[in-house]
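To the team - 2-acetamido-2-deoxy-beta-D-glucopyranose complex, inputs and output below.
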Amino acid sequence: MVCSATALWRALALSAAFTPTSLASVVVSPRDSVPPGFVAAPYYPAPHGGWLDSWKDAYSKAEALVSQMTLAEKTNVTSGIGIYMGPCVGNTGSAERVGFPRLCLQDSALGVASADNVTAFPAGITTGATFDKALIYARAVAIGKEFRGKGTNVYLGPTVGPLGRKPLGGRNWEGFGSDPVLQAKAGALTIKGVQEQGIIATIKHLIGNEQEMYRMYNPIMPGYSSNIDDRTLHEIYLWPFAEAVHQGVGAVMTAYNAVNGSACSQHSSLINGILKDELGFQGFVMSDWLSHIGGVDSALAGLDMNMPGDTNIPLFGFSLWQYELTRSVLNGSVPVDRLNDMVTRIAAAWYKLGQDKDHPRPNFSSNTRDKNGPLYPAALLSPSGQVNWFVNVQADHYLVARQVAQDAITLLKNNGSLLPLSSTQKLKVFGTGAQVNSDGPNACMNRACNKGTLGMGWGSGVADYPYLDDPISAIRKRVPSVEFSNSDSFPLFHPTPSPDDVAIVFITSDAGENSFTVEGNHGDRDSAKLAAWHNGDELVKKVAEKYSNVVVVVHTVGPLILEPWIDLPSVKAVLFAHLPGQEAGESLTNVLFGDVSPSGHLPYSITRKADDYPDSIANLRGFAFGQVQDTYSEGLYIDYRWLNKNKIKPRFAFGHGLSYTTFNFSSTIKSVTQLSLVPPARPPKGSTPAYSTAIPPASEAIWPAGFNRIWRYLYSWLSEKEANEAYEIGSTGSKKYAYPAGYANVQKPGPASGGGEGGNAALWDVAYELSVKVRNTGTRHAGKASVQAYVQFPEGISYDTPIVQLRDFEKTSELAPGAEENVTLKLTRKDLSVWDANLQNWVAPGVDGKRYTIWIGEAVDKLFTACYTDTGVCESGKTPPV
Ligand SMILES: *[C@@H]1O[C@H](CO)[C@@H](O)[C@H](O)[C@H]1NC(C)=O
Ligand SMILES: *[C@@H]1O[C@H](CO)[C@@H](O)[C@H](O)[C@H]1NC(C)=O
Ligand SMILES: *[C@@H]1O[C@H](CO)[C@@H](O)[C@H](O)[C@H]1NC(C)=O
Ligand SMILES: *[C@@H]1O[C@H](CO)[C@@H](O)[C@H](O)[C@H]1NC(C)=O
Ligand SMILES: *[C@@H]1O[C@H](CO)[C@@H](O)[C@H](O)[C@H]1NC(C)=O
Ligand SMILES: *[C@@H]1O[C@H](CO)[C@@H](O)[C@H](O)[C@H]1NC(C)=O
Ligand SMILES: *[C@@H]1O[C@H](CO)[C@@H](O)[C@H](O)[C@H]1NC(C)=O
Ligand SMILES: CC(=O)N[C@H]1CO[C@H](CO)[C@@H](O)[C@@H]1O
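Output:
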């Protein structure tokens, strides 16, 4: 098919527009406009991996393997072979001689990208809206099986950054919602499900990638700088990454943008300090695609793999690693122990996930849907062969995909119980969003258009639909007489409906990656803002003038302003179906016609006005000469944290979601672990692999005689002359590399806040357990209840904390009327702590008998019960603080 081939040719054409001289390193002074106080402090050296017991076996196997590798083999493994040079979106070099294969790294977080016969799962935001841990995990198991079935090694997901700070942000929909704990738990369960299938998961993007525009470094402009204070980083944006590391994630991807003025792909305090030392990350760190801007500097700052191998202007056959990394080691600039650590981390992740045993090789091509094609498309003149084997990996995964889509559907309003509908109902459907794009669901490259049913956003975070079960087809199965106006305008001549007729209006809002502009939106919703696309709000109003019973179904990447029509008396019901993926139809009709009660809950707040948020959140950062500055001046206060603090009533609060039935919750709390002010002292680091630190001989770096190179393919070898020259510098020290200020090469013991995967292991001690008995108190409908636990910190502590913060959630199974179920929620030491930037540790400020209140409810504005940590009592009927 044309999609990826077109992408390839576009990229080739793009590369031709640059002359090689423009490849000179980015000429910018990256820190000149960073606001005072924000610093990217040096943190060196890169911590060696292997010091944690949970990775010991993998590291000893990796050590045995890496000690057999030559210099050129080692550098080969750390780098991609070039964009469009292999079957996957990222392909590393190999060390076949010692049995280490090329690794296949593949998008996307919602299914195998650019491949046939796969499932297009619901997006992350939809998955988050289920608030259902078992379902989040089940989706991940299915995704992992598909990535394995296609022969990939690395799943480029889950996405937890962007976290959803800015409602207009383009890629929020790839993640799970605008709350760190929702992102953390959904991310960790996704990693668990995927990695149990032997696929390395990649938590991304580290960090502060909260808008799309101006994210990338290019020869004239650096990527924007997200300026984040230490406490906000720890308590909001880093929280899901810590949980991912705690879950044993194998890979981390850095973000395009900078943090505090330093590019994330070479940010020493971020990668070396926070990720590898404090969080104890043992896997490998890769760059986002084409964000590699410094060769030696990124290696020193802790990057382990560059993707897809090219410089940030691809397709010239140039890399800052591969042959350059070989040179940097020979000339002594990158210490040998750093390269050994890079390779060992990659090999250890490979062993940890069991990929040394019977792991399939890629049997599909991201570059073409044809059976045969070029083996190295970017080489232009490439040998051809079979590249697609059309392995069907879908199994029965449509079932879990449909379940997620269905259980995510969020009923915002249901006045007069218009829903569920009866199948004898006279129905009229409006809006192009009800029917699949007439050119086919995959007609637009990377889904970069908004035509027909919107099942996912656009960019690299997509998969091809095997089919799209659209809403109108599913509705027709229930109500064959349904009439459909496949237009986003209200028909000029429309017969007057009778008072009982029901109209369903489909509206959409799309967003995606900055590599494509759709209807004036540069990834972010910079043009459409928070209004429905295609005049959808106008359509709803017109329909509501004629019909007295209107249901609005919204397929959206995130929040919208619903004020133009939400209070109209005839707009009786509103369903957010989020981005359902391929199973958009039946999942919706199951809810519309009452086979199941809706049980989705909003993974973000819906405000009445866009500027209910402060400027730093409400607006995107626009063009600036030099570096665009995005300063997180709102600190911890995003989404409901901000609204609560500022007493702004949203239209629909975070967590809101109605059901056809009602539930009663009754809770008890019990203390499990007595907390201390700070966690107990961490254990010292264990030992790490020990290799020779001598610069290897130049002979390990030289092209094999008579090697037949593929044009523009990235190799790790040097000519004999180059290798000897570099070795001469390295062995004599005749030239010194200009190391960054603060550079050192003595391993550190690691900070007090570290010690285990994700941080000090004691942070995951369970402090309190809550048992919540949930009863379906309705008489007609079965339903699933969402139970959410929010912490309110003690009064009178010396830290300013958001009024309430989500800390755990559970969902019941489907409860028949009268039935009950007990769910258990847990609060850890970390859940009850704040990050003290002076102490550089987590502090539980309420240990001396102060009262934490744990609020149990089904949304941040529906908190039914207060449980007190000091007395162990739970009370219903208290007035919640928000
Ligand atoms: C960014 O700067 C702030 C303010 O100095 C500091 O608290 C924080 O630790 C810095 N973050 C990183 C990742 O360098
Ligand atoms: C690097 O990887 C490529 C691709 O697998 C392979 O052709 C080449 O021989 C490898 N180089 C070394 C030094 O093993
Ligand atoms: C494709 O993957 C399957 C496993 O799903 C494996 O059995 C097969 O060998 C692979 N095909 C190729 C050509 O590698
Ligand atoms: C070593 O090689 C790297 C890669 O080409 C280069 O950036 C660095 O400046 C060199 N170091 C010395 C001391 O020449
Ligand atoms: C619900 O409908 C009733 C009449 O059926 C009306 O009085 C009331 O204002 C409506 N409420 C909302 C929130 O639309
Ligand atoms: C649940 O039922 C109990 C006992 O009937 C009652 O006291 C309590 O207020 C109810 N709670 C909620 C949240 O409705
Ligand atoms: C739920 O827990 C309560 C109190 O611990 C117990 O009495 C009840 O039997 C449990 N209900 C179910 C359905 O397990
Ligand atoms: C079962 C199935 O969907 N098979 C498809 C796999 O992909 C090839 C090529 O796109 C199709 O022809 C098959 O129908």
